Amino acid sequence: MENQAINELRKKRWYEKDGEYRLFLFRDVNGVFYYQTENDVKNKKITGTPDPTWWINSRRVYKN
């Protein structure tokens, strides 16, 4: 799973909602969303949640 996350990181799919930015990594077969916040990227941490609420009405943004 870690290799898949690293490969997905290269796509840089950032989303923004209410001033919070998240880098979407992938969604697994169990419906868990894996993502990183800006601090997670610096700390090389991956967060996962089965709750899709944050992603609803978020918008795609382009960051480097």
Descriptive overview:
The chain has 64 residues and is α+β, with helices and mostly antiparallel strands. The protein contains two helices and five strands, in the order αβββαββ. It has helices spanning 2-9, 38-43; strands spanning 13-17, 20-27, 33-37, 47-49, 59-61. A five-stranded antiparallel β-sheet has the order 4-3-2-1-5. The mean pLDDT is 86.
Biggest pleated sheet: 5 strands, antiparallel
Class per helix and strand makeup: alpha+beta
Annotation, overall tally of beta strands: 5
Averaged pLDDT:
86
- Strand order within the widest beta sheet: 4-3-2-1-5
Q: Can you tell me the overall shape?
A: globular
Radius of gyration: 11 Å
Count up the helices: 2
N-to-C order of helices and strands: HEEEHEE
Using brief descriptors, characterize the structure shown.
64 residues, alpha+beta, 5-stranded antiparallel β-sheet
Chart the SSEs and their pairings.
Blueprint: H1 2-9, E1 13-17, E2 20-27, E3 33-37, H2 38-43, E4 47-49, E5 59-61
Antiparallel strand pairs: 1-2, 1-5, 2-3, 3-4
Task: Quickly describe the structure.
With 64 residues, the chain is an alpha+beta fold. It is built from 2 helices and 5 strands, in the order H-E-E-E-H-E-E. A 5-stranded antiparallel β-sheet has the order 4-3-2-1-5.
